[in-house]
Amino acid sequence: MALGRAYSVAVTGVDGQLVEIEADVGRGLPAVHLVGLPDTALQEARDRIRAAAVNSGEGWPDQKVILALSPATLPKVGSVYDLALVAAVADAAGKVRRERVHETVLLGELALDGRLRSVRGVLPAVLAAKRAGYATVVVPVQALPEAGLVRDLEVLGARDLRAALAWMRGEGELEVPAPLEHLDVDPRVDLSEVVGQTDARWAMEVAAAGGHHLMLTGPPGIGKTMLAHRLPGVLPRLTEAESLEVTAIHSVAGTLPADRPLVDVPPFIAPHHTASVSALVGGGSGTAKPGAVSRAHRGVLFLDECAEIGAKTLEALRTPLEDGEVRIARRDGVARYPARFQLVLAANPCPCAPAREVDCVCPPAARRRYLGKLSGPLLDRVDLRVRMQAVSTGALINEVGESTDVVRDRVARARSAAVERWREHGWRTNAEVPGPALRQRFRLPAQALAPIERALRRGVVTARGADRALRVAWSVGDLAGLDRPGPEQVVTALGFRDKGFHQ
């Protein structure tokens, strides 16, 4: 009887946990047995790895092989363990250098001819290997750019099983990651192309400066979608830590382009208005996959024609908007995905959506019912609401708005002021500051708070709405270069809450 060992990683949500794979080769009828809560894809690995080894010119034990994956209570999902399973058997047979196998984390799916295929979640798996103290990780060569994002770790890429086993014997070298190229903001979309919408442009700038949620209403063709598409361009580039966090989510979701492994600009996610709850917040059988709200983490989630989205789907946004996280309970455990995004809603004022409001043929009840899907609690979480009006002919032909670069500079200065102000408290944007902190530690003078007190007495805003208006006031003040907002900035913030949906 011979024992072998190898290591891989199980990814749940965006967190990885090291998995030890033990191989026992001993007496008994030739067979391969997998234990340790494997799912269907992993159970099928028994035939897959044996065929891959034989077709790569490697022998396979003509004995009983038991492969145990521990922790035994952790569900194992997917085909990421294939390479480590073969390595454990080779270690038991004494065909590889034991120290190389035991000091390396192995990731990748095997084809029947021995080729290594990439899998989802390579980046969080490599990060987990680094946290566990391992210095070397072997991945499929297709995943090399993604895995190479992790610093202070030796990342090697193998094209097939033959090359990987040769390296484990000390007889060959594997490929290393190429230098990383950064993704630039799309130069084809510029804010200067949006003309005649002064209020909407200003609202978008305030939203970008403070990380606030925004709602745009108006007739079709007025520029709602055009404006939303330009919001990521005025947001600051992601920091290194944020880039790895966002890239890990897209890796698990399987949406990471092979030629652009690092997401270093704010993502823009725009699901169709027929998207289900699972598509929006995440779900699926077994281990839940990230939804649109998580793929928009640190970026923009744009819901066009939001009044056409089902009420149940819209209400599912309330928890991510408040907590900045999605928690999905499944049979195999709870998957947690970060979901701190900027929400941009766009809607027509009524079902018939004429170019001119005077041409509307909808009865009043139909108009109320159309936007009635947007509940009060959901709208209360939207900081800025703007009603966009038709553009005059002169503005459309002659006006040229400020460019993305100019607005981005102002937003960057405002964000820097906010970061400096909230740094010691752990907040990065005004939208993240808790209401109690704004009302107590950073309380504004009585003169500045007077408009909010009047709005609360009249029932115009809720307590949550008052807190959100204060956050917007700080963002308006940052854009104006003020140390703290005054009455004018507070009135501006309250005006944003009264516009749009209720007009």
Automatic annotation (TrEMBL):
Pfam family, one: ChlI
Domain AAA+ ATPase: from-to ranges: 210-392
Listed GO MF terms: ATP binding
InterPro entries given in the database record: AAA+_ATPase, CHLI-like, Mg_chelat-rel, Mg_chelat-rel_C, Mg_chelatse_chII-like_cat_dom, P-loop_NTPase, Ribosomal_Su5_D2-typ_SF, Ribsml_uS5_D2-typ_fold_subgr
Transmembrane segments: none
PANTHER family assigned to the protein according to its UniProt record, in alphabetical order: COMPETENCE PROTEIN COMM, MAGNESIUM-CHELATASE SUBUNIT CHLI
Protein family per UniProt: Belongs to the Mg-chelatase subunits D/I family. ComM subfamily.
Record-given protein name: Magnesium chelatase family protein
Species per Swiss-Prot/TrEMBL record: Rhodococcus triatomae
